[in-house]
Amino acid sequence: MGSETSGNSNNKSVVVLSKLATNEQHGENSPYFDGWKAYDNDSFHLVNNPNGVIQMGLAENQLSVDLVEEWIMRNPNASICTNEGIESFRRIVNFQDYHGLPEFTTAIAKYLGKTRQGKVKFDPKRVVMAGGATGANETLIFCLADPGDAFLVPSPYYPGFNRDLRWRTGIQLLPISCTSSNNFKITIEAVQEAYQNAQQANINVKGLILTNPSNPLGTMLDRDTLKKLLTFTSQHNIHLVCDEIYAATVFDAPQFISIAEIIDDDEIRNHCINKDLVHIVSSLSKDMGFPGFRVGIVYSFNDDVVNCARKMSSFGLVSTQTQHLLASMLSDGEFVEEFLIESVKRLRKRHEKFTNGLEEVGIKCLKGNAGLYCWMDLRPMLKEPTFDAEMSLWKLIINDVKLNVSPGSSFNCPEAGWFRVCFANIDDQTVEIALARIRMFVDANNNVNENGVVKNKQQWKKNKLRLNFSNGKYDENAMNMMSPNSPIPISPLVRARN
């Protein structure tokens, strides 16, 4: 008879867990998550902990939350927890169809079209719910591939993909190397090389995954590149998965181009593209700033994928209370229009403020026009062009500058010295403090020894104290931001709090 435990030399029971529970494929041991742990252990607060770590490793859009709050105040009937909305309570709490509330899927389809400038229409019947983009990505991979299969993905790419796409599905991610020589733009030649290398290694490639706009680059794929990539995947009979969760964060020209628009292009139609191989992942986490609502969307042009994904969605449905609220909000066309316009204005303003502040101290960023972050070039600050030097610099920034920025190596970047820094999850005053810390760090950079340690630590601390000023007004909630998904265990790469 099998046993759940086995004895050891100390006569204590050892719990035997699954291979999934004990493997290291989740990716939590990445510096990307280590920075979050450092923030959790020593979180910045303007009053209570002014010397703490400022969270700039979290891609959250909190610049327009006041617009949503105002809408909710004006529309109390959108909630089933108010006097005005109580009439809908019984219907909503008893609804459990994994197709979703009809008014919700209809509203989502309209919203997807609006965020793509109305150039393409989306069918509500193809909208499949999931628990955030994480759940949507994994659900789609479960539908498309078997353990051991592989997907090509341009690097640098989002570190969470190792968890979202790979951990439970057992598939492989094969990086397509993109470099700064052409601003990290993906080329069809690089895709072909990666595909051929996989073929030679007898790896079964099931598809290509694109993040458009890019995380972490903040750039977009142009029409010609999308056409070439779509043609390539169709010719090789592999899937094309387009993660478009940042579609409505485009704050400067050119406009975002969805793969849904490319499919309808006359030139592409002449190439006999197989639409059954094309799939889109969307979300409300980034565009609307609703990560806690866990609203992810799978939109596939393949009927079988839609049917399978919908069955799988039973494991990660969006609550009907959330569906009800969002159906009302997203159906308010005037509000959605005004929100999207104002949101990109605020993103543009914050992006300009932050990148201009970096430029003033000689730090450049990759030119981008989308997203909630910048791809910051700190190569001139490396002792040598290696990833070991990048990690030394990152530890200095975390432990002494007290900023959580994410090193490029955690994004599988092929070049050392690039860092992603997020600018939309903190308020204006915290941005000023972060820029002041960066300015001081750059000024002190020549005062660093060969081990990457600030020589005059007392002077550094004395100067840093001068940065912790207050206008007497602050937002208590804004100063206590921490992602609910942030891992808690202390990382061995980050020094314990003194």
UniProtKB/TrEMBL annotation:
Keywords: Pyridoxal phosphate. The keyword rRNA-binding does not apply. Pfam families: Aminotran_1_2 (PF00155). Residues 54-438 form the Aminotransferase class I/classII large domain. The keyword Transmembrane does not apply. Transmembrane segments: none annotated. One of its GO terms (molecular function) is pyridoxal phosphate binding. It comes from the Eukaryota. InterPro entries: Aminotransferase_I/II_large (IPR004839), Ethylene_sulfur-biosynth (IPR050478), NHTrfase_class1_PyrdxlP-BS (IPR004838), PyrdxlP-dep_Trfase (IPR015424), PyrdxlP-dep_Trfase_major (IPR015421), PyrdxlP-dep_Trfase_small (IPR015422). PROSITE patterns: AA_TRANSFER_CLASS_1 (PS00105). Belongs to the class-I pyridoxal-phosphate-dependent aminotransferase family. This is 1-aminocyclopropane-1-carboxylate synthase. The lineage of its organism: Eukaryota, Viridiplantae, Streptophyta, Embryophyta, Tracheophyta.
